[in-house]
């Protein structure tokens, strides 16, 4: 099912049709979960945010502009929920505890989810260590394939800021890989 | 390999290894069902409030007693119509009084429009009121609910005028 076909179901779901809800969840949950998991590392937090994203999906459906792609709207919701959670987390938890928890969770997650794969993961580990502001740009650009202008729109920041964060992120990633110049990457 | 390509490839592979835990479905579903319940509750409350506003608006103009039921008959046909819906002769008398009051305060054209709108509103009102005089707003179709809102919006300025004159 493509995203256009999904819209009537989404509308039905907002009106209380549970089978429509199941269908929408099935079609979107991996995308939602993975996007959140790229941005937040603590498993219970990821799950809370996913839950919030769906709640927002029902309650904000009336604001959805059908001329724009559904995923674009969805990814906007995800990013806003993650940022909202980050703001709340700062208020809620003392910095010290948060850092300790994050470090521990980060290793758990890496072990379980990533190292099983046979790929070389140095680059991905680098991405995970980027600051949130740089990382969100990298995820939207290279995982979701958005143009920098679209990223600016999703994050509600100027394009110039996105460009500089994108540039800085690539610079950080290249530095770790001892780039020899241009886009060429030597292992 | 260019870093662009490498990043895309690594992120895709990493994503493939991050599966949404199946138990999350239960949580999201719970939240969804709660949302639907709340939403239904809210819209019911809205309808109730609306009915309350209409009732209040009808009762606001101070009643002027009238001896004949000409105007009420124009709306309902006869008092038996409201008696079938839990109304009494006294209610009918009161309605006649309100309509007479409106006639005295509005211009001829305004009163004509007012009567027409009131008639439409009362038809809807009768539809949702059972034998015991209890209202069931949920009996209205979506179209009728829209009509209800439109009629009350159109009636509002008349009520204001009737009420304003009554007070002054």
Q: N-to-C terminal Cα separation of chain A, in Å?
A: 40 Å
List low-confidence stretches of chain B: 61-67
How many discrete structural domains of chain B? Answer: 2
Order of helices and strands of chain B: HHHHHHH
The biggest beta sheet of chain B, please? none
Helical percentage of chain A: over 70%
The sequence of SSEs of chain A as H and E is HHHHHHHHH
How would you name the CATH homologous superfamily of the largest domain in chain A?
RNA polymerase sigma factor, region 2, helix turn helix motif
What form of chain B results from the Cα inertia axes?
Answer: elongated
For this structure, the CATH topology of the largest domain in chain A is Rna Polymerase Sigma Factor, Chain: A
- Class inferred from helices and paired strands of chain B: mainly alpha
Sheet-strand content of chain A, in percent, reads: under 5%
Cα-atom Rg of chain A, whole angstroms? 18 Å
- Describe the sheet with the most strands of chain A: none
Task: Describe the structure in your own words.
Chain A: InterPro entries: RNA_pol_sigma-70-like, RNA_pol_sigma-70_dom, RNA_pol_sigma70_r2, RNA_pol_sigma70_r4_t2, RNA_pol_sigma_r2, RNA_pol_sigma_r3/r4-like, WH-like_DNA-bd_sf. Chain A: This is Sigma-70 family RNA polymerase sigma factor. Chain A: Residues 125-173 form the RNA polymerase sigma factor 70 region 4 type domain. The complex is a heterodimer of chains A (187) and B (168). Chain A is built from nine helices and no strands. Chain A is an all-alpha fold and 187 residues long. Helix content of chain A is 75%, strand content 0%. In chain A, 28% of the residues are buried. The longest helix of chain A has 23 residues, at 70-92. Residues 113-119 and 179-187 of chain A have low confidence and may be disordered. Chain B has two domains: 3-65, no CATH class; 71-167, no CATH class. Chain B is built from seven helices and no strands. The longest helix of chain B has 36 residues, at 24-59. Chain B starts with a helix and ends with a helix. The A-B interface holds A 13, 16, 18, 21, 25, 29-30, 32-34, 37-38, 47, 50-51, 54-55, 58-59, 113-114, 116-117, 119, 121, 123-124, 127, 138-139, 142-143, 145, 170, 173-174, 177, 179, 183-185 and B 1-4, 6-21, 24-25, 27-29, 31-33, 35-36, 39-40.
């Amino acid at each position: 099912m493509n995203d256009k076909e999904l819209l009537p179901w989404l509308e039905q779901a907002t009106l209380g049709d549970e089978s429509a809800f199941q269908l929408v969840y099935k079609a979107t949950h991996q995308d939602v979960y993975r996007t959140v998991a790229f941005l937040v590392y603590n498993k219970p937090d990821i799950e809370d945010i996913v839950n919030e994203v769906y709640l927002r999906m029902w309650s904000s459906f009336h604001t959805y502009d059908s001329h724009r792609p559904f995923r674009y709207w969805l990814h906007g919701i995800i990013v806003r929920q993650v940022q909202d959670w980050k703001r709340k987390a700062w208020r809620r938890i003392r910095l010290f505890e948060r850092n300790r928890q994050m470090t521990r969770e980060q290793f758990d997650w890496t072990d379980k989810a990533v190292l099983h794969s046979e790929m070389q993961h140095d680059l991905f580990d680098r991405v995970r260590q980027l600051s949130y502001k740089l990382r969100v740009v990298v995820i939207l650009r290279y995982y979701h394939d958005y143009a920098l202008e679209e990223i600016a729109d999703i994050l509600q920041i100027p394009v110039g800021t996105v460009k500089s964060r994108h540039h800085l992120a690539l610079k950080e990633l290249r530095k770790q890989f001892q780039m020899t110049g241009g886009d060429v990457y030597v292992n | 390999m260019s870093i662009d390509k490498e990043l895309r490839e690594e992120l895709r592979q990493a994503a493939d290894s991050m599966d949404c835990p199946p138990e999350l479905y239960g949580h999201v579903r719970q939240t969804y069902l709660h949302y639907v319940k709340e939403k239904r509750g809210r819209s019911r409350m809205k309808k109730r409030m609306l009915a309350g506003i209409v009732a209040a608006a009808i009762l606001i103009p101070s009643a002027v007693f009238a001896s004949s039921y000409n105007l009420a008959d124009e709306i309902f046909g006869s008092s038996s119509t409201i008696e079938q819906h839990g109304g009494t002769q006294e209610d009918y008398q009161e309605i006649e009084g309100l309509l007479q009051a409106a006639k005295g305060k509005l211009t001829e054209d305004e009163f004509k429009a007012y009567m027409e709108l009131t008639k439409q509103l009362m038809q809807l009102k009768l539809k949702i009121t059972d034998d015991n005089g209890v209202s069931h707003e949920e009996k209205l179709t979506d179209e009728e609910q829209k009509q209800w809102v439109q009629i009350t919006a159109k009636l509002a300025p008349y009520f204001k005028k009737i009420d304003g004159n009554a007070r002054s």
